[in-house]
């Protein structure tokens, strides 16, 4: 399974008045982590558009389990991987570590989306290209 790890320092603007990360900020970090996962795997956003004709990879479901809070100045490690791939949808998992401890588990369901060939004004799910499946799953 292809995994990307990135270090993130918690910034002042990430925190609420209690000096802990305001939970929606983690979802922005997860979105960045998913984009970075694709980039590091060799599938830049430009490739998604030019090579595969995709418009994007929108999120259709998300949730998280919070175990340990983080505060301004803390460093966290976000490990991101694709857990499963269907025809056009896929499940992303983000494990957030504070030191060695698991601080958060984040989950996303996303879909590859392109223009509908029958009506280019509409969007339509697109199948996962085989080379992407191979890279992310090792199959």
UniProtKB/TrEMBL annotation:
Protein name: Acyl-CoA thioesterase
UniProt keyword DNA-binding, yes or no: no
Any one GO molecular function term: fatty acyl-CoA hydrolase activity
Protein keywords: Hydrolase
PANTHER family per UniProt: 4-HYDROXYBENZOYL-COA THIOESTERASE FAMILY MEMBER, ACYL-COA THIOESTER HYDROLASE YBGC
Gene3D superfamilies the record matches: Hotdog Thioesterase (3.10.129.10)
A Pfam family that the UniProt record links to this protein: 4HBT_2
Highest taxon of the lineage: Bacteria
UniProt KW Hydrolase keyword: yes
